[in-house]
Amino acid sequence: MPVDIGIEEQARQEIAQGLSRLLADTYSLYLKTHYFHWNVTGPMFHSLHLMFEGQYTELAAAVDVIAERIRALGVFAPGSYSQFSELGSIPETRDVPSAEEMVRLLVEGNEAVAKTARSVFPPAQNGDDQSTLDMLTERLRVHEKTAWMLRSILNKQ
Length: 157
Hints:
This protein is mostly helical. The chain has helices spanning 9-39, 45-72, 81-87, 99-126, 130-154.
């Protein structure tokens, strides 16, 4: 059955492409954050371990919301590592960095996701897709706040 939600087919496809990039970046950041949660060490272990857990839990819920929005637009959501690697902008971390480096990498990751979310605003606005715009605004709020909180750990002023 065709999708008839008041957004033209081409607009739905363009929005879904942007959301697929956002899904890839969000999932990649989820994996990195969970990986760091498992492997953080040092004097800040307890506080970082708990902080990372809160962050990866929020990201896990977010990937579902983003994927379901793609599906509501009538497009299949990507879901493989290879698709996420092709679509995403967050580099994989294979080694176990220091706690401070983990925080720095998560700042960069959250900023990258914010930029990706911001890039989807124009097609969503052009398509008059209020649902996607609302979701993007929420994602920006989360990632900008998380980046600020993580950045505050690194600033020694």
